[in-house]
Amino acid sequence: MAKKSKSHPILLQERPWANNENKVWLASSINLYRNFEKFKFPIKLDSDRKHQMISLASNHLLKTKLLSHPELIPVEEMSPTEKEFLVEHFLSPQSFHQAHSGEGFILDDTGEFLASLNIQNHIHFELIDTRGDLESSWNRIVTIETELGKTIPYTFSPKFGFMTSNPRQCGTGFLLTVFLQPSALIHTGKIDEVIERLTTNDIALTGLQGDPNKIIGDIFAVHNRRMLGVTEENIISIIRIFTTKLLVEENGARSALRKEENPEVMDKVSRAYAVLMHSYQMETIEALDAISLLKLGVDLGWIEGITIAELNHLFFNCRRGHLLSRYENELVSEEIPHKRSEFIHDSLKKLKLKI
Amino acid sequence: MEEQEKEKPEIKHPDRPIECTECRRPIVVHYTEIAGNKRTCTGMCSECPQLQKHLHGMSAESEISKEIIGSTGLACGDCGTTLEAIRMGTPLGCGTCYDIFSDVIVSDLLLAKSLPKQVVGVNRKGPLHLGRQPGEKQKISPSLKLIALNEALTETLKHEDYEQAAWLRDQIKELTGKPEKSNGKKK
């Protein structure tokens, strides 16, 4: 049985995923990587210096009015389930499982802000946006970053910009990821052609967990390939143009599905419905893939009895960290696939297939 | 032979990719080497120098970099990070590493297409950073959204997809409060 530990309610946020009505543009993640001038990078810091660094940064961030009721959670106080929950909640491609003493997180109660401390860099600011408002989110995160930088200056060089432990993140230290779910393009077989036509050298596409060859739940994580030699405005503009064009293509594909019957896609949606409603046990990836098809079915009017927001919420809640948190760690790993199925059945009990 | 087939472990994708214990990047390549009766499986990130060595031998870029810095053990005087460690994907240890390993870093960024070629001058000594400075107040205008919508609209009209063009026009109208006047045509 998983070990119980002190829980942190601020970690287990439902927002912003509980009311996310986005059909295709699931969310965006705005990331800034920074290191402080007077310290070596985390890999070369001993435990005492790491704790000193955390104390300095948190002293400021816990008092700022730019965050709503922020809290510091040292890694030592976190259970493995809480770490996993955090990775899932913030759609992080990197795992925090290896996080250890001298590392920590600052969160606020909006469920949108995360500052990771001493994990690869001294500080990694992350903001989740579900409104598609990249510009406002940028303005918000950079205000927080600027305010902290006035107290503790960042390591910066005119040649390499903001210096990061991974040289591929130096320069702006700005990673913008947009999570898109173009399920109509994927299931009508048009996605490869569209991506080839729209992608430029400035953009990279991966799956949910950072693997370019493994697309889970029909989600593409679109992010800037370059952080050096470009401006922040360039980065936002490039990602926005790509996203807008992909949305147009996806809307077109959905529109075609509404006008003309497509037995292959209808079959896929029906099978997804059946698997979710009747399976005895389900692995995460199978569940996420099926939920994406269900979302498509709801949008096309083929399925009723559930909203897009409820399906988006289920998308997060059926992942392992969220599931374990819901059952307060009282599950052995062999029980998880069955519990996941039970949870999904319960969430989808009003579902009705209309095709 | 059949027995061997049966013994093959089933590939099961974990809920989360396992990370490399050295560089902490996600493992995306599973490299299996069979030598005689011995089978070894190694997980590597896509940029792992070990993977490049397995696939292509020592790369040309590595040779060039070796020439640039010499094959002696170059190390950062402030944090002790060595060139060899950096080539293996170990994170940099401090800001001074950027001065010491400047040429290697620029070569790696160019190779990974993480730096536009036109930004790098002939002597590689000039500034490469074009973004904001620390403390600089930089508000990004919402007009970027409008630029993207207009660009998508132009492309959509080229393909004569009037349904999507109408959707884009509605979005533009919402932002500007007036209809878009692209191509002098009315909807």
Note down, in words, how this protein is organized:
The complex is a heterodimer of chains A (355) and B (187). With 355 residues, chain A is α+β, with helices and mostly antiparallel strands. Chain A is 41% helix and 16% strand. In chain A, strands 2-3-4-5-1-8-10-9 form an 8-stranded antiparallel sheet, with helices on one face. A two-stranded antiparallel ribbon of chain A has the order 6-7. Chain A is globular and about 65 Å long. Residues 1-5 of chain A have low confidence and may be disordered. In chain B, 40% of the residues lie in helices and 7% in strands. Chain B is mainly alpha-helical. In chain B, β1 and β2 (38-44) form a beta hairpin. At the A-B interface, α3, β6, β7 and α6 of A face α6, α7 and α8 of B.
User: Nearest-angstrom radius of gyration of chain B?
Assistant: 26 Å
SS field, number of helical segments of chain A: 11
Order of helices and strands of chain A: EHEHEEEHEEEHHEEHHHEHHHE
Arrangement of strands in the largest sheet of chain A: 2-3-4-5-1-8-10-9
Could you give the count of β-strands of chain B? 2
Q: Over the alpha carbons, how many angstroms does the gyration radius of chain A reach?
A: 21 Å
Describe the secondary structure blueprint for this structure.
The complex is a heterodimer of chains A (355) and B (187).
Chain A: E1 25-34, H1 47-61, E2 71-74, H2 80-89, E3 104-107, E4 113-119, E5 121-129, H3 134-151, E6 156-157, E7 161-162, E8 174-180, H4 183-187, H5 191-198, E9 203-206, E10 220-224, H6 232-259, H7 263-278, H8 284-299, E11 303-304, H9 308-317, H10 320-326, H11 336-347, E12 352-353
Antiparallel strand pairs in A: 1-5, 1-8, 2-3, 3-4, 4-5, 6-7, 8-10, 9-10, 11-12
Helix pairs in contact in A: 2-10, 7-8, 8-9
Chain B: H1 2-7, E1 29-35, E2 38-44, H2 49-56, H3 60-69, H4 83-87, H5 96-100, H6 102-111, H7 143-158, H8 162-176
Helix pairs in contact in B: 3-6, 7-8
